[in-house]
What does this fold into?
Amino acid sequence: MLLFAAVALSLGSHQQTDTAYGRLLREATTDPHFLPASVATVPLSTTIPSPLKYFGTIAGAPGVMHHAAELYGYFRALARATPRVRLETIGKTEEGREIILVAIADSAMLAGSAGYRAALARLADPRTTPPAALDSVLAVAKPVYYLNGGLHSTEMNSPEMLTELAYRLATSEEPAIRTIRSSVITLINPVSEPDGRDRQVDWYLHYTKSHPTPDDGFPRSSPFWGDYAFHDNNRDGLQLALALTRAIYKVYYDWHPIVMHDLHESIPLLHVSTGTGPYNEHTDPIAIGEWQVLANSDITALEAQGLPGVWTWGFYDGWWPGYALWIANNHNAIGRFYETFGNAGANTYVRDLSDDSYAGDSVTTRQWYRPWPPTKKVRWSSRDNVNYSEAGVLASLGYTGMHATELLRNFWQKGVNSMTRGRTEKPYAYVIPGFARQRDPARAAYLVNQLERQAIEVERRTSGDSAGDFVVRRDQPYGDLVVNLLGIQHYPQSAKYPPYDDIAWTLGDLYGVTVVPVNDTTVFDWTGLERLRDSVAAPGAVTGANAGMAYLVAYRGQTSMVPALYAMAALAPGSRAYAAETAFVAFADTFPAGSVIIEGAAPETAGILAQRYGLTIQRAAAAPAVARHQLDLPRVAIYHSWYSTQDAGWARYTFEQYGIPYRSVDDGDLRRGALRARFDVVLVPSFGGSVAQMINGIDRKWGPLPYQRTTDTPNLGTPFTSPDITGGPGFEGMTALRDFVDQGGTLIALGAASQFVAETGIAGQLTPHRTTTLFHPGSIVRARVRQRRSPIVYGYPDVTTLFRGNGPLYDVANRDSALIVLQYGATRHVEKDEGPMLGIPDTTPPAAAPDTSSAAPAATHAGGDSAYVVSGMVRGEKEIVGAGAIYDVPIRKGRVIAFTFDPLHRFLNHHEFSLVWNALANWNDLPGAR
It folds into this structure.
């Protein structure tokens, strides 16, 4: 009790503490070691409601979790009660829920927030603040510190903790809090994923709260968080596909916070991020130093208050720039995160830590980065979690207030450094050639627009032979981000620990856009450049004969081509589209194999398609005399399991963004059978687990386990519903899939789902390709077309690039080598029986014909076109080069198309989408089916 008495005195004699709140939080804390002085008491206010007064419970109360609207109601009550708190809506989720932002500071600071925001904007762009003016700007600037809660929905405590933190910051007169309030503007996004929060609260209250142990095997998570992304909602910083990501970007651009701090839960007891390395190549050294300083400051402050189990370093690496927190690191601020221990709810459990190991060391051992480890078993509560994370955030806010001028100066200096590197380090700029020189003009426009969404300045050449080219110079405040996104990633072969996520993201290759580095300093003196102030669009036009009866599109893998055909089917039901099976010449132009011939469409329809999809459509007097087949657009089903929904979510998102209709099906749909009567194509997106888990799904011992909207679970049952999510497809579902293929359907499996078709016997020709040294984290690599006539590779050059991470590989018998459509590696495959043969003297294979299927390569690389790795790193690559990347396996009347990589990965690798679109549009016209 001496500890609590000392804490109570620290608030000062003029402000009372809330004794009822203090008693409850002590009762909810499992060990006095877990209650730091900075949060051991809570001030009492007669005018501002505490969480206890508003909810009837403290933050971190046993068994209590609140939905997003309930939490928002509390923050609104705070804002009504005190001018120290303001609230605004910064976005809406995919389901229409609010995403809010709460600002807390002294009332005078909030009233003058526009001036502080303007000062931070000047520091963010050093061109507006020359060195001579820096001190005058620093004299009026205040640091903004952003806290992001509730991103991963099973990590449930940060939204609860943030209610108490906000109350404390708004009401406490303790000197440390007054210093924070007068020197820092604290921004709180309490629930950055409200859709997932509401689903998970329902799941916890209705299901997992009643489970007395944490490791009984019952699923602790709702099958969905957001409508599309699950854990990957923290991997969307490059795509900006999700509403929650765009809301966080809005905060950065509106406020320019110098620290953005993401609150997670996964590992004991509190991990403060710095990363093991290798650090991202284009992170300013100042930022790397700031990660260490802030982490060690937090650890020191918490251990001084008697908290064990606080540590840094040995978790995560600091390489991938697409996390939510990297919005800050990418823009010269500080991105950091916590990982507190969590129980996926508000139950109290005894947790065994004896097997928990990170970076090779047990979490219960003393290390230089963990000076006070926890015991091997810990009884842990929701309130323990709140204590740790709130005390840590208070320490960070205190450090920021005390070192405000230093951190603000560093913020400015990082922008200066970025511009300096841009003028002194190659490449000095990148050129994105104009639309006429791009294989997929719409993707080039998309790349330019994505750069602008990252606040990167892009210029367009307005005259000369290069008119229309886009120029991205590095001598700008976010010049480091320019080279980070457009340059090649050189992940070190010698890295000691496996990477935490993907290691390559070169956008030109991911989008199939030619991007040329500029190594000549004369780029700084180029004339005829105009700064883009708005988004761009690829031009579309209909050219040629005015009275023609056919329309031609030179197909080079444009991602908009097949979506345009679906739109045409709706706009002009009587129209027909065909794919040319060989190259042909028209209008003195060469049209590669796969080019599209349209008949029966009105000129108005052709005009709409050209403009909407950025296509050049040439009108001809008649269709060319060329072998062709009709593109019968299929009825598509996208399958999702119930235990792993994320990659199916990205697939659904991609289909919807491109306007390709589909129906989602689950285990129950497969078990009901009769799939061929309803669908022509079943797409199985990548999903994890063993083959047994893919078949059996969630253990049937928990069934029936409904995922449905009821009065008790009003937020479940979306985006899909089921009366029982256990059991997987089972043998009935697998039999139904086999029957679907036998009866003429096309089954497409992506990435890890190739196991689902290969190792269950549906595509029995595929056998596991065993490797011993191969290590293939997410990298961009080269691949070579093996079956040039296959419509799956229409529009692609003989050697192309694709993105691949670790995953299953397959072989086929030599007699079935023709099933390999695309192989890994650029080396031309040589059949075992090629070469001279006794009895047939002249058997030397002819030279390969030149490739004419593409107007331009995807990108220009100094390493040439023969190396396997384009960007990233692969160890033991000899074990994959030559192996099949895409297999096309005819089975009775139908076929299985197995991608041993994921061409729909996180809405990032747009260059590969057309491989899937080709498989759809030609589903019944593949070799062997005609």
Remarks:
- Residues 1-13, 848-860 have pLDDT under 50 and may be disordered.
- The chain is about 30% helix and 15% strand.
- The chain has four domains: 2-414, 425-531, 541-630, 636-921.
